[in-house]
Specification:
five-stranded parallel beta sheet; six-stranded mixed beta sheet; about 375 residues; Rossmann fold; alpha/beta; globular; Uridine Diphospho-n-acetylenolpyruvylglucosamine Reductase, domain 3
Length: about 375
């Protein structure tokens, strides 16, 4: 979902040139509905009132009868922008009324999630809003017994996400970008194959009104600089099909990552055992593991310990070296208040015990 929205004058509606944009979007949505197994389900659209989610809601509602699914709108009020946020909610409720479909609203308080938390562990406002938003969407979906939540991510979002992750030093998994569906199949993204220009053309042809996000024009945000300057420049100077190339890269990397994930999960089942608040790790033959597999197993262990947000390359390297040299009594401190220790029965990962902090090697 997009960030904060600001109301502006109505967007002028021009008659788009070329192929019928309504037919194009509806054909894409119909194909996605089949791939994503929407038939027989209630699909809850995460609706912000902006262009993308307005088009998604309209296209799904128009396709619902033939596709054999039902549609409802869910709006999450973030409580951050006063009257503007109230206007967003009113726009979504008005859209639902015009489409003749149910609408639910929940209010969240992202700032409350940040209170009383150390600066290291404190989520950004955007992170807090995202976590709470998806929780609220889940509750709204449960209201209608819905098993699918549709978000309006599109091809431009995919390109921006892949490039941002690349520029910030992402690993291979990060280059998989945004999947068309979540691993459990609950979150679906029917517009991922369409560029933003196609959505705007659809909205203009269909006579839809939407609310603009004023922050999308601000160069303060890296994603906006990428969207308005870098991507158009790269497309003009290097590859006019840049969006398609990045989408293909994401798809190829995601398929590779899914295959690798299966290998990792087999090792996890064989090597990890939960013992209360501790995770026991079977380190047999650990030095002979491929480095890529060793690092992925370590990352999975740290995520299970609840400190995945703090994991950096140095942590993976130091833990790998630690696990390769068993010695009873040796231990290291890790970020997030956990430790890794050797016992006679093997390696244990878990919370720092009373008086433990500072007695072992620290990896920070």
């Amino acid at each position: 979902m997009a960030g904060p929205h600001e109301d502006r004058d109505p967007v002028p509606r021009r008659r788009p040139l070329g192929p019928d944009p309504v037919r194009r979007v509806r054909a894409e949505v119909a194909g996605a509905a089949e791939r994503l197994d929407l038939r027989g389900h209630t699909v809850v659209v995460a609706a912000s009132g902006g262009l993308d989610s307005t088009v998604l809601a309209h296209a799904l509602a128009e396709s619902a009868g033939q596709g054999g699914f039902r549609v409802a709108l869910a709006h999450v009020h973030h409580g951050l922008r006063g009257d503007e946020a109230d206007a967003d909610q009113a726009a979504v409720e008005g859209l639902a009324e015009r489409l003749g479909i149910p609408c639910g609203v929940e209010r969240i308080a992202p700032q409350a999630l940040r209170e009383g938390v150390s600066s290291r562990d404190r989520p950004t406002v955007q992170e807090a809003a995202r976590w709470l938003r998806y929780e609220a969407l889940g509750r709204l979906a449960a209201r209608w017994g819905a098993e699918r939540i549709a978000t309006a991510h599109h091809a431009d979002d995919q390109a921006e996400t892949v490039l941002l992750r690349l520029l910030r030093g992402s690993g291979p998994d990060g280059l998989g970008g945004i999947p068309e569906r979540s691993r459990d199949g609950r979150i679906v993204r029917p517009l991922l194959g369409l560029p933003r220009s196609a959505l705007r053309a659809y909205a203009e042809r269909a006579g839809l009104a939407w609310r603009e996000d004023g922050s999308n024009a601000s160069p303060r945000y890296a994603r906006n600089r990428l969207r308005h300057t870098w991507i158009p420049g790269l497309a003009a100077d290097f590859n006019p099909r840049l969006l398609r190339a990045l989408a293909d890269l994401a798809e190829a990397q995601r398929r590779d990552s899914e295959w690798i994930r299966g290998c990792v999960e087999r090792e996890v089942r064989a090597r990890f055992a939960e013992e209360g608040s501790w995770l026991r790790i079977d380190t047999k033959d650990w030095p002979s593991l491929p480095e890529a597999l060793s690092r992925r197993l370590i990352r999975e262990a740290l995520v299970r310990a609840g400190v995945g947000r703090h994991v950096e390359r140095i942590h993976l390297e130091r833990v790998a070296a630690f696990l390769a040299q068993p010695r009873a009594g040796r231990r290291i401190d890790l970020p997030g208040g956990i430790e890794l220790r050797w016992t006679r029965a093997g390696a244990l990962l878990g919370p720092l015990g009373p008086g433990s902090a500072g007695r072992g090697e620290t990896v920070c």
